[in-house]
Design a protein that fits this description.
disordered N terminus; mainly beta; 40 strands; about 675 residues; globular
Length: about 675
Amino acid sequence: MIDKMLIKKLLPLCLMVFMLSCEPNQKGETNWLSYGNDYSEQHYSPLSQINIDNVSDLKLNWELPLPDAIQFSSTPLAVEGMLYFTGDRAIVYAVDGRTGEIEWIFNPEIGKNSPRMIALGWNSNRGLAYLDGRLFLGATDGRLIAIDSTNGQEIWSVNTFEKVGNRSITAAPRAFNNTVIIGHGGADAQARGYVTAYDAQTGEQKWRFYTVPGNPADGFENEAMEMAAKTWHGEWWKYGGGGTVWHAITYDEEFNNVYLGTGNGAVWDHQMRSNGKGDNLFLGSVVALDADTGEYKWHYQAMPEESWDYNAAMDMILADLEIDGETKKVLMQAPKNGFLYVIDRANGKLIGADKFSKSNWAEKIDLETGRPVLGDAAYYYDSPTHLWPSPLGAHNFHAMAYSPKQELVYIPEMQLGAMFMKSTMPSMRDGFLNLAIINDYVEIEERDGTGSIVAMDPKTLKIKWKFEHESFWNGGILATGGDLVFQGTADGEFAAYNAVDGEKLWSVDAQRGITSAPISYTIDGKQHIMIPVGYGGLASLGIKSMQEGWKYKAPGIRVLSFSLEGKSELTRLDTGRHQFDPVDLGNITINASLADEGMGLYHGAPCGVCHGGKVNNSGAAAPDLREAYSVTDFETFRAMTQDGLLVENGMPQFDDLTVDEVRAIYEYVRQETKKAYDARAGT
């Protein structure tokens, strides 16, 4: 009892100490210490020097070109005038916030450590955690690495992966109270989800919590897994189960909770995964754990019977809201499925939920049961159906923001549907994407393939305003005390909007697609806005709206810092957008049967994640193979694919493919190359 009382007395002090990160120190520096700035994950800065009245005067302070980088999806950190962020291949950069000069670079060399695993990580990394002078990096290959923030030297490293299943890490860890927590991806490749907590000083494991049950014959790790197993049927463990925590982890100081946003089922097909029965806990859920022990407290499942990849691994925001005259401590989440959820953090009960994007898989959320009322389109097992949203989601990992000043949530929304159909011959090959579902991304409505900023009132769940973009897969959002909202787009615009009504107040052509979220901080008492520029995290997947996009390795990947005192001009570049030149293969004859075999291998391996579905690539993570010399020479293609010739550049080594399988993929790529060339030539 004494200990509990002491904790209650100390919690406000701890909170105050942490909030000091939002106040300038003696040097005039205000920090951004965590993925979402502070533990509330609001992606909000109270700084107001830059505001709606003067944002039009915002100028470039400095730019940092990174010509060797491939893409960005990282949210940076700002610590005592230093900036820390990750690029592709989990490379860490430390940059002087005043000058934009690189102080040090840490390269985990994931290609050398695990050349095959790169394929499941998309060459993407979304950021770092910081605590007590240490940076924490989740490397693609499963290592959690502690790095000295002053010099970039490794302090310790631990392998977080189990031997069973195929996993990768792309998310930022979370750090608090001498604890660092990391999850992983891989549900699409037969992984069983879990998160692990480590001692921040030593790297020793503190606890591990599984998000789905394993084989009952092996016993259950805890009562939560025994409870969850009652909602599963068949032999689900043979497929992994899924539920991976590949992005969202949030720490709640007030309740001493850790919240997990869990992912999709492995496999996607509920009939195959669980005999078509049961809710399958804790898929598509928010799960609350005791931060000290990892013990289960409560859960809310947004996606019972998950069958669409509508996972709940997106950002979770903590806030206090006045609802019906009562202050509620809430958790807000906009998962893939197109609904914004408001959940009571004290008990996990649903307070409210409503649509923020086009969604026909469900008509509404029943507030009495907390369950979705499914629409007719949700049932694709008997015949193909067109569903909104697509598996990419109405909202993906791109950071949403909340302004406690305006009491609005700002969501980077996407509208795109997909045709869902049950696979009659699912492949369960180890190391491949195994969905047991076939998806085809199809643009039907005029808005399909576009995005927007949706400003939504979480108390009423009504949309207050919307600013529409021509593109989707736009960057994360920053809200500020200056009544501003900042966002970069896939088209390469970085802009500021009025947080009250959505009016665009300022913009700059960054000349390269933007996926990352901006941050705000002060140096020498002056407020800065910083944004990593570089389209990342996804290839085109054959989507029409993303074809002929940003060229792989073209100029323009850089970091930009803006301030009211900025005096620089942004360097103008030829970024190579909308320049597609397929190779002329001449009058060749394609082996159609071999190409069909190669198509399945290409998408399963998964080549399409980086090089684009149907070999249609926007050029984000990897070259467009239809433009590559390797399509003219099989031995070169084989050496890059099978031998790992370009592993250090981020190209995985597919040494589990046979020569005949590589040849089939080669034939498929050549087929699509010839189609593209003939289409351009009008033949």
